Amino acid sequence: YAKHNPRLSVQLFESGMDERRLRSQKLAVALQLAIENDELDLAYQPIFCLKDGSIESFEALLRWNSQEHGQISPLEIIAVAEHHGLAHLLNQWVLSSACQQLRGWHRQGYEFLKININISPEIFMSGELASTVKAILQRVGLPPSSLVLEITEDTSLWDTASSVDNLHALRQLGVEIALDDFGTGYSSFSHLRQLPVNKLKIDKSFVSDLTTDQRAADLVDAIIRLADSLDMAVTAEGIELPEQRDRLQQLGCAHGQGYLLARPILSCQVADWLTKNWQVRHSAPTG
Ligand code: C2E
Ligand code: MG
Ligand code: MG
Ligand code: MG
């Protein structure tokens, strides 16, 4: 009926909006409590060197199993946080939790392990990130070189000079910057020219078509060579099939990540996973 009755469709639309707004508000209240009570969690997905199968880094991925609302996806958590003024609090929590956990793994003997942390564009814009990161690294006792910050290029925020300054401040600290979901943004080349990034992550949509679509394969090949000539290290995301991994190896892609290689691991299981996988990966190449 709504299709033919404009008044009814407006009502349905508005009540849908109300529901969404209500959920967002409830989630914001619950999220703030969850951050304060340390009820969020991080999962860690390993990033491997494709040549010898060794572990390069862990990407920290936000997880929230709310008592009241169930499992909430990281993208929804980020959206709620940004909409309700919790982005900085959340970012602080993610940064300091991940750094503390990495420090723990370093102490257990995995000193070369790095950590990748996703940072939302809003946080970069504020201009406080470099000093926040510096303070956390000092407090926790980690070298800046063990931290890789991932930013997505899919935003117009990158057109401002201040975000470029903020990135330079971070690079000066010794932190690395990766451009996440590369290839899906709208002006990749101007970003590569302006932003002081030193890593690229090829979006999983390219990887999933790699062995079935020649154009996708050609593009991945071109991205890898482009990165090479700009002295950037490349990671392919979303590797699910052995033939995708093999093709990426052939194309000379340095690093890889995906369900085929390892799923995200809950923080409490990482130490176990490391004892089972580190020796294997680091003494006997799996190629
Ligand atoms: P992302 O940074 O591009 O992370 C990769 C996403 O792909 C993760 O989803 C990961 O679980 C998933 N993934 C990994 N391997 C595979 C695979 O082989 N196949 C498929 N289909 N997916 C794979 P997740 O954990 O749901 O995170 C989604 C997005 O949420 C992330 O995309 C990132 O943009 C954002 N995010 C997650 N944690 C944080 C955080 O702490 N802060 C911020 N600002 N954003 C975060
Ligand atoms: Mg990422
Ligand atoms: Mg990505
Ligand atoms: Mg993504």
Automatic annotation (TrEMBL):
Residue intervals of the EAL domain: 24-278
Coiled-coil features, chain-numbered ranges: none
Protein name: Diguanylate cyclase (GGDEF)-like protein
